[in-house]
Amino acid sequence: MEIRVLKYFLTVAEIGNITKAANSMHLTQPTLSRQLQDLEQELGQKLFIRGSKNITLTPEGMILRKRAQEIIELVEKTESEFTSIKDEVAGDIYIGAGETKTIKIIANVMKILQNNYPKIKFHIVSGDSEDLSEKLDKGILDFCIFIEPFIPEKYNYINLAEKDTWGILLRKDDPLTKKKSIKIEDIINLPILISRQAIKKTFKNNPIINWFGKDFDKLNIAGTYNLLYNAAVMTEEKIGYTLGLDRLIADTLNSPLEFRPLEPKLEVSVSIAWKKNQVFSKPAKLFLKELQDNFSNAF
């Protein structure tokens, strides 16, 4: 299985038309069709459903698309790492991050490093802890910013200085805005939009589940999310109240929403983690050193 052919496959999967995909890659249509047929024969699976004008992926094709994307990302990252071995410090650093205000701390470290080494580039990948930890484990990411809960035993990590506060996002015209904080009894019967990560019972110590205690199973969960912005839009449209972190949505200019912290207050730690025994590129080593110079609580 060649990298070149995987790139062909991904292009066709994205465009959905072999002729247009061939034109975009400056190939003839028969050449591209033959490459895809050879790939199907090599894998022993049908990857495409061919229609009169467009093609779609089979379930097996969808599996290959996910794996091919990971392979290409890893190849590109490896090429970047070997480029950075040269005397000149240049290359890419890949950081996964959940939505947190603490990204500002990391951005400050990035800025310090980029001022000294302007050819270093940073790539931020957003997602929840499950998606990001999978990419970190596979080596696609160098670092991950995890919001509690996560599994610290798997990684080396630095606990960052600030904490995030859980609370409720609600419309400015909502009667609950009269309250300075939100208690369980205020929301127990209301439709709630909640982070997928926040309700995972697979974590030994889940702060949200612990905060609600015996009342957690009584919650009226109207939906889940992994990006707070999308949940905030749903709150604007009166689909539900969003249980989320502070200083991400309501603090933005002209936001139609307000934030109220939970009572009793619920704060969670934020850490930046990397694989144990990780072999870093030169830029990633410099980034880690800058982190350690700024934060002494590394594990």
Summarize, please:
The chain is an alpha/beta fold.
Strand content: 15-25%
Computed CA radius of gyration, to the nearest angstrom: 23 Å
Can you name the CATH architecture of the largest domain?
Answer: 3-Layer(aba) Sandwich
Number of separate structural domains: 3
Q: How many helix segments?
A: 10
What does this structure look like?
This protein is of the alpha/beta class. The protein folds into 3 domains: 3-77, Arc Repressor Mutant, subunit A (Orthogonal Bundle); 78-161 and 270-294, D-Maltodextrin-Binding Protein, domain 2, CATH 3.40.190; 164-268, 3-Layer(aba) Sandwich (D-Maltodextrin-Binding Protein, domain 2). The chain has 10 helices and 11 strands. The protein has helices at residues 3-15, 18-24, 29-43, 59-83, 103-116, 129-137, 184-187, 207-212, 228-236, 282-294; strands at residues 48-50, 55-57, 91-97, 120-126, 143-147, 155-171, 191-195, 220-225, 241-245, 257-261, 267-275. The strands form 2 sheets. Strands 3, 4, 5, 6, 7, 8, 9, 10 and 11 form a 9-stranded mixed sheet that branches. Strands 1-2 form a two-stranded antiparallel ribbon. α5 (103-116) links the parallel β3 and β4. α1 (3-15) crosses α4. The longest helix has 25 residues, at 59-83. It is globular, with a radius of gyration of 23 Å.
